[in-house]
Design a protein that fits this description.
The protein is α/β, with parallel strands linked by helices. The chain contains 15 helices and 20 strands. The structure holds flavin-adenine dinucleotide (FAD).
């Protein structure tokens, strides 16, 4: 019986791909004319702009997917030791990358260093209630580490607010290290790095010569006619047994409505869409609409390298809120990967908005460019405006794993389990990173392919 996947971002595409590889008949419905969701790469005047994610962390499942799709020749891996910076009092300060460099770093004071050193020797127990990342870091290490490093990192990953994000949902391994070992540092040393299959190097920031869109474009290409673009799922009905499918997906293409029958349905669309499709059949799933999404604007500029104070070498920088800048962080694209900017130019991509400054994510183009460019002038000493510009606004960019998230997802999953044949996957469930989306999509594909009772 045909499995219908709703949503053609990386979650839906990789789920459909896995289903196809398992021999299932699969049909993917994507509302837009272009598949890929928030993964979008645009080459303009020789510069390669990433409208969404700038790179991804290579996981075992992603490495396998890249090999299956025969994309090895286009694959790019950034230098793992590329320095990262944080802005403190207007200046770039290197983020220590290892435990030893932490101790010698001027980024944190002696008293925070002493708390870090003492942490493995003071067993602690996490509180029974869900705890925010901010509360956790204050409890274990103090406010300085939170303000200077952790909150900016959290903004860099989730565009989120550390006071509201749940530690156990957003960073489950940190929570379980404390739970199991009474210490983060002991837990970190005891947990083995997750090995990578087929002897590939584990971890590392990666992309493709023509950007991250290569991955989703190749998936859509290989899935061929199984992907129907411009088809929006509007409603989901159960059909009485005995007829062709167990579910009917009511779709809209142009002005036309069309029912599509399905033996099983995987919803790989954002949480609010999953909520509205599922609520009539599984009322508890309506709660998925409560998951907030951070608005983010992505602003890129390709600058003449000679207009910079010095050539840039590294990943980029993050900005603590105390600096009173609107930029959350800036990625130095052309320093990370080759072929990103025209000759003698440097490509930089900044993020503004997020949960702590939502209105910035909605600024019109001109003020957005002015804001980012004047702040980059202050931080990096850039003399003139960029040669080429690009901006993309995502009103609902990244799902927030806020306090109560784990419990909400547990309840929804328990209710869904009572309706065989209905599945959810996507970036609001087990992590927003591309690798996490693919890992989950693979597992959901296996569950969906099993004949349901
Ligand atoms: C600005 C930004 C920066 C990021 N940076 C990184 C990064 O550096 N590294 C990293 O790993 N991750 C990053 N992420 C996160 C990661 O890119 C996303 O979490 C992931 O790509 C989401 O994939 P998805 O398929 O779950 O959702 P989406 O990409 O949102 O795809 C959902 C799809 O469902 C479709 N759809 C919606 N409604 C319907 C309907 N009714 N019927 C049919 N189709 C429908 C949509 O059109 C869309 O194509 C970033 C995200 C953003 C926005």
């Amino acid at each position: 019986m045909r499995i219908v996947v709703i949503g053609g971002g990386i979650s839906g595409l990789s789920c459909a791909w896995r289903l196809r590889r398992m021999g299932a008949e699969v049909l993917l419905l994507e509302a837009e004319e272009r598949a890929g969701g928030v993964i979008r790469s645009v080459r303009r005047e020789g510069a390669l702009f990433e409208a969404g994610p700038q790179s991804f962390l290579l996981t075992a499942a992603l490495a396998d997917l890249i090999a299956e799709l025969e994309l090895d020749d286009q694959f790019q891996l950034a230098d793992r030791r590329a320095p990262r910076y944080v802005v403190i009092e207007g200046q770039l300060r290197a983020v220590p990358l290892g435990p030893l460099s932490f101790l010698f770093s001027g980024l944190i004071s002696g008293s925070t260093k002493r708390r870090l050193l003492a942490e493995p020797f003071h067993r602690t127990t996490p509180p029974a209630d869900d705890e925010s990342i901010a509360a956790f870091i204050r409890r274990k290490f103090g406010v300085e580490l939170l303000d200077r490093l952790v909150a900016p990192m959290v903004a860099g990953i989730y565009a989120g607010d550390a006071e509201r994000l749940s530690l156990r949902s957003a960073f489950p391994s940190l929570h379980s290290w404390e739970e199991q070992h009474g210490s983060l540092i002991r837990g970190m040393f005891r947990s083995r790095p997750s090995g990578n299959s087929k002897g590939r190097p584990g971890g590392g920031l990666a992309s493709f010569a023509e950007g991250n869109e290569t991955l989703v474009a190749r998936l859509a290409d290989r899935l061929g006619d199984s992907v129907r673009r411009g088809v929006r799922a509007l409603a989901l009905n159960r059909v009485p047994t005995g007829s062709e499918g167990r579910f009917e997906v009511v779709c809209q293409r142009g002005g036309q409505r069309e029912p599509i029958s399905a033996g099983a349905v995987v919803i790989a669309a954002p949480a609010r869409v999953a909520a509205s499709l599922l609520a009539p059949l599984v009322p508890a799933a309506g709660d998925l609409a409560r998951i907030e999404y951070a608005p983010v604007a992505v602003v890129s500029g390709s600058y003449m390298t000679e207009h910079l104070k010095a050539p840039l070498n590294g990943f980029g920088f993050l900005v603590p809120r105390a600096e009173r800048l609107r930029i959350l962080g800036t990625v130095w694209n052309s320093s990370l990967f080759p072929g990103r900017a025209p000759e003698a130019q440097t490509l930089l991509t900044s993020f503004v908005g997020g949960m702590t400054d939502p209105s910035a994510g909605a600024m019109p183009d001109e003020p957005l460019y002015q804001t980012v460019e004047s702040e980059l002038r202050r931080v990096l000493g850039i003399l003139l405006a960029p040669r080429i510009r690009f901006a993309q606004r995502w009103p609902q960019a990244i799902p927030q794993y806020n306090l109560g998230h784990a419990e909400l997802i547990r309840r929804v999953r328990a209710s869904l389990a009572e309706t065989p044949g209905l599945h959810v996957t996507g970036n609001y469930l087990e992590g927003p990173a591309i690798g996490a989306c693919v890992d989950l999509a693979n597992r959901v594909a296996e569950a969906a392919a099993k004949p349901a009772g």
